[in-house]
Amino acid sequence: MTDRPYTLRRGVYVLGQGIRRAPRTFAVAVVGSALYGVMTAGTAWALGRVTATVITPAFRAGRLDAGRLAGGAGLMTAVVLLLVAGVILRRVAAGRTVYDLGAIYRRRVTAQYLRLPLSWHGRHPAGQLLSNANADVEATWQVFAPLPMAIGVVVMLVVAAVSMLLADPVLALIGLCVFPVVFVVNVLFQRRMSPRVTLAQQLRADVSDVAHESFEGAMVIKAMGREAGETARFAATAHRLRAANVEVGRTRGVFDPIMEAIPSLGTLAVLAVGASRVASGATSAAEVVQVAYLFALLAFPVRALGWVLGELPRSVVGWDRVDAVLRATGGLAYGDATLDGEGAAAVSLQHVDFAHVDVEGRSVPALTDVTFDVAPGSTTAVVGATGSGKSTITALLVRLVDPDRGAVRIDGVDLREVVEGGVAGAASLVAQQTFLFDDTVRGNITLGDPALDDPDDRRVWAALRLAQADAFVAGLAHGLDTQVGERGTTLSGGQRQRIALARALVRRPRLLVLDDATSAVDPHVEAAILAGLRESGDGTTVVVVAYRKATIALADDVVLIEHGRVIDRGSHADLSQRSAPYRHLVEAYEREAQARADAEAGVPA
Amino acid sequence: MSVAEEQQRIGSAAVPTVAQTLRRGVQLSPELRTGLGVTLLLAVGATGGRVVVPFAVQQTIDRGLMAPTGPDAGAVTGLLAGAAGLVALTAVCAYFVNLRLFRATEGGLATLRIGAFRHVHDLSVLTQNTERRGSLVSRVTSDVDTISNFVQFGGLLLILSALQLTVATVLMLVYSPLLTAVVWACFLPVFALARPMQRAVSTAYGRVRERVGGVLSAVSESVVGASTIRAYAVERRTGERVDAAVESHRVAAVQAQTRVALTFSSGVLVSGLVSVMVVVVGTWRGVGGHLSLGELLAFLFLVQLFTGPVQIGTEVLNELQNAVAGWRRVLAVVDTPADVADPGDAGQALPRGPITVRFDHVSYAYPGGPTVLHDVDLTIAPRSRVAIVGETGSGKTTFAKLLTRLMDPSTGMVLIDEVDLRDVRFSSLRERVVLVPQDGFLFDDTLLANVRFARPDASADEVRLAFTELGLGDWLEGLPRGLETAVGQRGESLSAGERQLVALARAYLADPDLLVLDEATSAVDPATEVRIQRALDGLSRGRTAISIAHRLSTAEAADEVLVVDAGCVVERGPARELVGRGGAYARLHESWVAQRSV
Questions:
Q1: What pLDDT was estimated at residue B108?
Q2: Residues B534 and A599 sit within 8 Å (Cβ to Cβ)
Q3: What is the reported pTM?
Q4: How confident is residue B4, by pLDDT bands cut at 50, 70 and 90?
Q5: Which of residues 509-548 of A touch B (CB under 8 A)?
Q6: A4 CB near a chain B CB, below 8 Å?
């Protein structure tokens, strides 16, 4: 986020951006506002005219001319109708401008979220991003609600200034001094207001962030009985927001009355000077009255101008926060190579280094000089202790991230040269932590790909069968049409994993990457899944992160990772024989069972 | 949807009326009322000050400029100086009105926000899951913000407008009762139509609030699901879903805005037509000699005094509907009963020590769903280590949730130390019984802060010791920044296995008497899992430990195994005995061994 100071110029720039993106509705609103302004003056004019031509003659004559009275009433009614038309036009169009702009920018902001790389997401809390898309966009464009009115006011001010100048230039100039005063007051106000609004808007995002995180972790909070602690954390942020809002209100509370007082004091000044000018015979009382009256009329419209000026700092702050998202760069670049070869893919990692960037911008090495190949159609198991870098390898294989050094290739093509969507078209990852969309079971599997939408869901069911999920899906109340709820809350962990697996399998990927993707599935179900994969897996290269020996044994090849480096590689049998770290890892259960059996044997029953 | 299920949802009760909403809202934010009398007095002053300038103009003209003796500069100066003083005083009044209003309303809204936040956490897990997270967030953020506009100025303006309306009516009556009747007759349809129009505005605003929740949920999904979206290149589809939510919000907002504009302009229209009617009727009466020209013109100005507050009133009422729409969504949370409630001071606090667990004919069915646990009746001895095994969907996790009172049984009782869980104070229960769920959610903070979550007063050394005692000292040392490692959002800078290690340390530090592990090490490598298992074995002596696992290594290490199948406990005993029985456990064991022995 930028910390550029607020200036009126930047406020006008934001207004310009808005007008550029919604020129038509804005123009209609301004026309409505002008119509309203003209007709406001028209009301006085019509009443004057009717008084002069209808009412006064009638009173004087003591006789009612029905035709004339009807004509007068008709004129007044016409003005009223036009006035109302102006109000409707201005209000509806101003509302549309605000919400059209809001929608445009919400779409642009979320399009950025979808485009920016995962490393960017890692540095930006979800609650903050929610606030950028919602509260900040709203803060930016809210000013367009009073703006058309204010523009109408400016027109009125110009007209008023001209008629004042015509009436008495000296008085008019005194009166016009009001404008520089309004300007100076406004500059002072903006200077005080801007940091306060910035703080309030940031705190608004913080409140959203604490709430979002806390509700996501609701289960853990409950299980640990930390509701009071969480409430205290939220309350601290909410009270900071309250204090910041009161400060904003205090500043606004000074500004609004001053803005209101300025034209009043201006009127009094005009009267004072006018009185002495009348006394010296420089002007007539009638002209003083006219200028003073015009001034009194302006008091309300100047307040409307004040609303816009008062709202502008918030707009600029909102804009800065939204703009920071829109300007963020670093999306993955794409090339034009394709991966639409037939059959299983060949995979290679060459001297790959990768480091995570933590929240504070420090780099934390995860992989160092990782090199291995996977032959087409073969299965490779990646084995290593918790936290050794296995998941990072899976992320590189489907290009969720790019290596810092070295290259990841499929069919000899560096993934960085592949067209957008090309890697996903060839390779599917089933992540350790499954993510389901708030959609139906079918929607979560096809992800809206029309190629997978056959009328009898044949391919979907086949994938579900392979993932050992067909039985439970068939048992759901609405089968494939069952809504799984947000993040799949209505399903168990094992069920979610199997849906995620089916999502990958239905695509018949040329490379299937499984990141401990069956950890929540029962052993015999996993065995059935693996057997199915093996039978149907001719066209697929599989890279699997696994701990279970049954899974590993299915692999043609095992890559052993320790602290982000490949320390050994070979078949399961080879590694079992020659690698102590490997045995330590994969034979832990047997060792434990043996130790227990020994202990029991040693102790008389 | 069944009645039971209906009750579990937020906002399933009847929609409260505007009056009920306001009453309940003010009740929940008592700050809104504090010092209102003084504020109102100041506001009358600030509003009354607005007549100073017109009055000064008239006086200057009549007494100064048009004085029979010619313009009197001295009198004018004195008058104007006095007026300037009053204008300044008015501004000061207005400042204090603003400040007092901001203080009161922001205070009230903070209280409401915090109360609603707390209540979300007090709701049962089931109720929490009926609502989208993004929607819950909007209920404590933007829905509350919606209320602020109205409570800051609207309520006050409404009162002042009513005041002005009364004064104007009295003055008009003085001039002409007949014309006053004409004015009121014109406005009666407006007042009569106000209700249905307000209702239409209210519906529209209600829809807007709902769709804001929808937008937040859609955006939240695109942010939280970022890696899945990229892995499957479904950016466009997700974008379309977000766009659809954004568009439906826009449509609803524009519709609400249009209805507001129409309501407001109906007031403007009638105000204008009233003047026409007054001119027509007034001229007719004047010609008849019942009214002078001056009186008619004066009356026309009084009409302006009358129509002004009517227009402000419609504006404020629209704002009120918006506030009520937001308020209703917040109140819906606060007024949803927390069906798994803390008995509080009425409940018992249990002394610390080894825990006995008893299930007394417990059955459980999800609201509107099938029964998932059938008549479970068993006792778990203190200090024992029990493993619960069974296939996915057999009811294992339900067992854990009942044991830790995340849910209450449909029938029967869960007792610890012979006390019904429903009668145990949460403060005592959560201290003694801790659940480690499979997905150990971490907060966006350091490792240290996350482990300390369970016991905020624990020192860094105690946290380090927890890792060491669990056999995880090496892992911790392997992290370049040790306990200061930032875990990222939801802990996603760590791998799923590492998150489980932290969650385990967190529970371990809490030092409960009953530890319930629900697949708590499912993503951890076997060597580490065995190490943790051993550490827990050694350390859980003296406490009761219940583990739910599908890896039978856990079962083999337990004193006793409970085998759950289709919601019933079908077998019970030490693992080595069950293997020989040829039942459900034997079958599970067979596939487990088949997996290992390659």
A1: 94
A2: no
A3: 0.85
A4: very low
A5: 516, 519-527, 547-548
A6: no
